Structure prediction request, 838 residues.
Amino acid sequence: MSTVEERSASRKRAQRQGQALDFVDDRLGSSKWIRSALDKIFPDHWSFMVGEVAMYCFVLLLATGIYLALFYSPSSAVVTYHGSYAPLDGQKMTQAYESVINLSFNVRFGLLMRQAHHWAANIFLAAIAFHMCRVFFTGAFRRPREANWIIGITLLLISMLEGFSGYSLPDDLLSGSGLRVVYSIVQSIPFVGPWLAFNVWGGPFPGSSAFLQRLFVIHEFLFPLLLAGLLGAHLAVLWHQKHTDFAGPGKTEKNIVGSRLWPQYAIKSQALLMFVAMVVFGLGGLVQINPIWIYGPFEAARSSAGTQPDWYVGWLDGALRLWPHWEFRSFGHEIANPFFPGILLPGIVFTVIYAWPWIDKRVFSDYGEHNLLDRPRDKPLRTALGVAALIFFIDTTLASATDLIGNGLQVSFELLIEILQYGSFVGPVIGGVVAYRTCILLQRTGAHPVQRPVGGIIVRDAHGAYHTLGAEHDGHEGNGHGGPEEVVLGAQAHREA
Amino acid sequence: MTATKYPRIVTGTHGPEEGAGAGTPWPDDVPPEQDDTWYPLRDDPWKARRMEYLIAAFWAVTAVCGIGLMVVYWTGGQTQLEGALFAAGAGCLGTGLVLWARFLLPGHEVTGSRGHHVSSPEERAAVVESLSRGTDAMMSRRGFLVKKVLAPVGGIFGIAAIWPLASLGPRPGRYLYHTKWYAGARLVTEDNRPVHVSDVMVDGLLTVFPEGYIGDASSPAVLLNVGTAAVSEPYGESGFEVVSGANGLVCFSKICTHAGCAVSLFNVLSMQLICPCHQSTFDVLDGCKPVFGPAPRALPQLPLGVREDGYLYAKHDFYQPIGPGFWNRGSDRQYFPKVSS
Prediction:
């Protein structure tokens, strides 16, 4: 189809590209790697994009975060505000709070960047959580991908801490209350709690003048560095092991089906970056988030109704509300109340999540290597446990908003908390059973495009019934949902005939 | 037999990263009917040209948005416009990219080998061999240097290396057991006004600090006037009572015994203080004992006195640590030895 000019232009372009690549290859010997990278095959499924969304959120967080860091002042020195936001005029506040107010009102594009940063953080955590669920429910964590599961969970954990530390930097009333709660949680740890809290904060709450600076260094240097390093490792392992894929026609454990990195996949991925930017900056400009000028500066003697953390910490805040008024004292020592929901619960949750690949192996007696994914229905028990965990998570997250929900529904928060307390036990059980039954039902009906016979031979048996032969696809073991029997029956009939 | 939209291309094992296939020549075997350069609009120049114009139009909108952003900046900035233009610009750029990739760039489904992501047994054995070269020599003479010398030395030096972390904060000592309240401290408001017995109306409430320590995070207390309501004396003989001759004033720590938030909500009808953070509820008439929510203990009460000029003062610091629990907090019995059962 190409014209003479096009062909000659292509030749010239290849020559120029060749010269540039020669320059690099003479020094790095990179051609083999570059070729394999350009030809690398990525399976296509919408759910595989969500991890990419998280990655691009991280890119946007770095970009907007660097901009914010150029204006933020991590100082707890007290100043009297006389800036452009009149309602706060004459108010005493820390320099940190003042710098964020000034960034919001006096720096052009400052508020956009700040709100985009905050939205990006919320979407970042949501994408990570969704990505984790996808990997969990499809068994993508199984051998040989346990290492990437561990790295991924560590990324989630650090991202939560990173998000919380950023939320705390403006030193407004809301974030100050959040820090007070976290201080109490740290202080509640047996043996080392008070000592640990004093070392992190540099003294009793609200801490020494160095605390905001520490928080700033942690938020804009330590955690981002860890996140960038772990994200690099996550991608390197993925690159080496190649992506998992759902079973389907022509797909086996040994091959990979998808589109090559260059050019289509790469361009589509850049488009995804643009769409993530569209959402983040659209929300950042049009939908208000964390209006700290309404909350006011932090004072230990104040707190306000509607004190909620960002969504990804909600489950812990909710757990703090649902855990009964128990604490345990004996021999002059005490395990304080916040320890159980604030340290023990996330400790158990993250231990189980970290260990899940190995628990999963034992539960299903499956120690083998898997490149093809389960569908959620294929492992009803795993799916049921995952759904139960999600319902517990939703229940505790709702509990972090009992006051707001109570206001909205005109129900007393006491009633809501009691419902959610029972719900945290009953909800997961019901959800798990329903999920289990649903999985079995889906297995029986076998309604799924991937599992439906594609092509094959149709034979007529001795009774005149029609059957499909050769409809099972390779790579999926023994859960053909009525498929195999049908095929066997058909095969016999074929032989009889 | 497949339901793919595009021609399927099957390539052989290739690439240095694919273990067993490493070093094999690049396949020069693309059959003519499986052309790797195929894309949906390749054979339709007219449609391809129209698609190019469409993509160009999207990207032109992106350029317009960029110019718009600069205009907004020059005219002083406007957050909603900035966000809308940013979003529209990025969205159009992304849409153009998707159309480009989808219709004008090759990228149909191909099948490749996964290869081997693990090493061969020989390669693994070779690593063990190389490792042993070092470890055998190191652990000879029963590993004297490594086990008996290097391990303890490393431990000692490692501890010394992280020791400076101890500079991060003071030792907790008795900090958590005391607040800034002291015997004789006048109650002052946030704006440093001494509090008179007549300052708080019945059912009223005021946040107070010890004079000289306004804003201290451990000391905020809430002064309430319960009027003529009967108030129980929670801790017997420890000096907790409605201030005599002071119109039913009682004063409690404002720091929640659950997680340390300021207990800032007051339900006058039920005479309950409620913490907005986790909804712990305290019964003012019953020594601020928790009646709902996660708070495990009563809010400590501040023993009040009235000076001759009618201003309020603290007779003593709180008799027990304020705020949330901690490992060394001890039992209430320790702080109230005289409690009778």
